[in-house]
Predict the 3D structure of the following.
Amino acid sequence: MIDLAHLIEQANDLAPLPASTVRLAELASNPECHLNDVVELIAFDQALTAKLLRAANSAAYAQAAPVANVQEAVSRMGTAHVLSLAVAAGARPLLQARVPAYGLDEGRLWRHSVAAAVAAETASRLCPVVVPPETFTAALLHDIGKLMMGRFLTAEILGYIRRAQEVDHLSQLEAETLLLNVHHGELGGLIAQHWKLPPRVVLGITHHHHPEQGLDVICDLTYLANQVAKHIEAGLDGQPCVLSFDPGVAERLGMTVQTLENFYPIAATRYAQVSRRYDVV
Amino acid sequence: MTTADFDYVREYVRVQAAIVLEPGKEYLVESRLHTLARHEKFASPDELVAQLRAKPQSDLHRKVVDAMTTNETSFFRDIHPFEALKKGLLPEIIKRNAESRQLNFWCGAASTGQESYSVMMTLAEHFPELLSWNFKYIATELCQDAMARAKAGRYSQLEVNRGLPATLLVKYFARQGAEWEFREDLRKRVDFREMNLIKEWVWMPPLDIVFLRNVLIYFDIETKKTILGKVRKLLRPGGYLVLGGAETTLNLDDGFERVVFDKTACYRVKQSSGKANQ
């Protein structure tokens, strides 16, 4: 089937995130990060600087005077949002790829990742728990393992996975675990670890399907972000979306059916507002 | 895979390990044998099965049983049983055995050892005095490869990511290249033994705690009953059996009573059954 050692070796060889992105992810994970650190790091990256200035001068801020430098952009948009855009810009080239083994055309994984990241941002406003600053990055990168797993899922293995789903009614994740002894969340966690992303980002990615195993609120929040992202995408595709939501997660996050129902449209609206900033086509 | 080959493998696995493979599980047998065939230099699973038929009772047969054994495990799997151990079972048993200073623990189907080492970390963290008692920890496993890995106590990053908090990782494991090795002094307290649950059992002392989690689900009802009956006879009065979340003694062995510790159901031999090991 899959040579696990080889898979892990390949995961470690996946093109790394740019060093500046990893550093930005670290800063984004630190609630006490200094504004000057962010400005300095971004100012060295011309493409990122241009992108931020475009975003800061976009229609959303049309009534304000144009900004001309990173410092002003950060002041206008807020450190957290600037960091979100910066981390996303670094991850985009990877997540833009098509992953046929998971039925993902070019751009679909990116769209899902951005929707999850937006849901994580929304959670920081709507969830009654304290949302760790690492949540955005964990949500953005939660499916990074699919990139690597997808390379190993041959037609034969996909056939076994499909039969496991049909015969034993297993989810994709359960079938991966049964047949390959690893699932895409765990593989994504390994990749994030290899990239030296903050430990809580690794936890959120690893346990985004079974957050109860992670013993950290970031796992619940990444699960929430993933579920909400599916909901947003279904809306964009005009598909009905009946999502199941683990009641244990809702309980740990202090959310009720009502707050969850309110959450979805707010996150979808937010996604519609900001997705262009993340270059979602 | 032909129906005849599937039937051959599933019958062999049933007889040797009581693992039940219902029709429809061809995909599982084929995928597991696919890996084994490649490892053993056969061109295909079909060729491997042909070899099994040609040479009955070969080492290849053992490897097939090993391949069909599900070794899914993780550190602190499901967490709640370890909370029950920490907050309920161990405090109660330590109090009861304070005079004899003796405690015997058995972990059946120990797989690659993560569950046993999770117990050892729980002891070292919360009940270090137990390590100076006459404390026996026996871990048994059918699969030879899994047991060899358990004895070595070395785990990949992927495996330590499964359930092991970072604080315990740095405290109880040492980095050895790409792997993490469990602390030797605690590792040596675990007595790993090869044992097939459906065949003759190795000798075991009267037991205070039995962890037999996520094992019975693979067996048919008669095998479950036989195993539970044997466990009941080995348990000391007041001793506990801990099963997997989807397992129970209900309708299988009425010699047990259910005792709930927070979110974990444990099973104790009923006083009236009179069958507990005295």
Notes: Chain A touches chain B at residues 1, 4, 8, 156-157, 159-160, 163-164, 167-168, 177-179, 181-182, 186, 189-190, 193, 199, 202, 206, 212-213, 215 (CB under 8 Å). Residues 4-278 of chain A form a domain with the Hypothetical protein af1432 fold (CATH 1.10.3210.10).
